Amino acid sequence: MEKQYLAFLGSELLVREGAEGPALDGASLEGLARTARRDFDWEGLTWSALALDPAAGEEARARGLGTLPVRQALALWPEAALRPLFKGLALLNWLEGARHCGACGTLLVDAAARDPEGEVAAAGGRTCPSCGRPHFPRISPAVIVLVRKEGKALLARNARMPPGGRFGLLAGFVEVGETLEEAAVREVREEAAIEIGNLRYRKSQPWPFPDSLMLAYTADWVSGEARPDGAEIAELRWCGPEELPEIPPPGSVARALIDAFAAGGD
C-alpha cells in the first residue's frame, strides 16, 4: 500500500482542503525541501513525517496545500485519524533535541547496523556510533484530573490564558520517584490548595506538545477551599453541567473528561 505522509511547516500541518485526515500523498510533496524526516508504522500502514524547510511554504501553497495549527486539527478529525499525526509530530519534536549522546557527546545516528534486533529503529530511536548507547524517543508522563464536588467540576484557567479565556483541568508532570496517583494528588494540592480522594483512572492520550503521555483521572474533593496558585493557575471555578465556560476543543483528553461529566457520567 502507498506510504502516507505528514508534513509540517514549523508548528503547522500541511493539509489539503476538505481532507478527512492529515495524510498527504508523496506526489504533492515531491521536491519540497525538508529539514527532518521520520518513518514509522501505524496499524499496518507506513507513514513518513516530514519537517519542511520554511522556504518550501510558498511552493506548497502553489500546489493547493494549506496550513493548519496542529491543535486546531483536534476539533476536525476523529481520534483514529489523529493518532498517526500525534506520533509523527512527537518523533520530529524529539529529533530536534536528540542530536548528541548524553553519555559521551558524540553525534547520534539513526539506528541501523548497531541495532540488530531492530528494537531501537522500530521505536524511531537513534544510537551512538562511539559508545553504542541506544537513545529512545522521550515520553514525559503527565496526569490530568477532573475533581468533583457536590455535582460540580473544578475548572481552571491557566495563567497564559487571558481573563475570560478558556478553562481546562488541573494537570502536571509526574516527578521522579512518584506514582501516578501521588502525582495527581500533589498537582491538585499545589495548583488548587485542596485535598482529593477516590482517584479513578479514565483513559490516556499521547500529547505531542512536545512529548507528553497524558493519564486522565477523576477524583472527589475531600477538604480545603479551592484557591489558584497564582503562578500556573490564574482562576478556578466550580461549574455544573449547565454553566460551563469555554473549554478545550474536542479531541483532547481534557474535553473527554469534561464531556463525560456534563453528560452525567462518573
Characterize the structure shown.
There is one protein chain. With 266 residues, the chain is α+β, with helices and mostly antiparallel strands. The protein has three domains: 4-96; 99-136, no CATH class; 140-262, Alpha-Beta Complex (Nucleoside Triphosphate Pyrophosphohydrolase), CATH 3.90.79. The chain contains seven helices and 14 strands. The strands form three sheets. Strands 9, 10, 11, 12, 13 and 14 form a six-stranded mixed β-sheet that branches. It has a five-stranded mixed β-sheet with strand order 3-4-1-2-5. The longest helix has 19 residues, at 79-97. The chain is globular and about 60 Å long.
C-alpha termini separation: 42 Å
Number of strands: 14
Average per-residue pLDDT, rounded, comes to 93
**Architecture of the largest domain, CATH level 2?**
Alpha-Beta Complex
Helix content, binned percent: 10-25%
- Tally of separate domains: 3
**SSE pattern:** EEHEEHEHHEHEEEEEHEEEH
What share of residues are in beta strands?
Answer: 25-35%
SSE order and pairing:
Elements: E1 4-9, E2 12-16, H1 26-29, E3 34-42, E4 45-52, H2 57-62, E5 65-69, H3 70-73, H4 79-97, E6 109-110, H5 119-122, E7 126-127, E8 134-135, E9 140-149, E10 152-158, E11 170-173, H6 180-192, E12 195-207, E13 212-223, E14 233-239, H7 253-262
Parallel strand pairs: 1-4, 9-13
Antiparallel strand pairs: 1-2, 2-5, 3-4, 6-7, 7-8, 9-10, 9-11, 10-14, 12-13
Short structural summary:
This protein has 266 residues and is of the alpha+beta class. Helices cover 23% and strands 35% of the residues.
List keywords for this structure.
single chain; 266 residues; alpha+beta; Nucleoside Triphosphate Pyrophosphohydrolase; 3 domains; 6-stranded mixed beta sheet; 5-stranded mixed beta sheet; 7 helices; 14 strands
